[in-house]
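Posting for a labmate who doesn't have an account.
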Amino acid sequence: MGRKGALAEISKGMGKLSPEERKRIGMLLNDAKQRIEAALDAKNGSSMPTPCAPASMPSGWISPCPRPPQPRPPAPITRIQRELEDLFISLGFAVLDGPEVETE
């Protein structure tokens, strides 16, 4: 059903056909698309709204559910920096934030 599907390949070659053949093949192609979409709708049950396919979307449209972002572990350098800060804090030092370069 996509841009690289078999039905799309057939529709690309319709420009080479005569007007009578184009009309006949076009009707068959549209009928096939409608039947396939109806079968997919029946199989997937897309007539019922879901969080991924809200009621405002036209039937037959497919909206993939985005997965929520997973928390990533800190980068190795960040992890080491935090471990060193914890070490120095346990020894009585204070960690201060400020500019990395001091100007005159």
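Reply:
Got it, the structure tokens are right above this. The longest helix spans residues 19-44.
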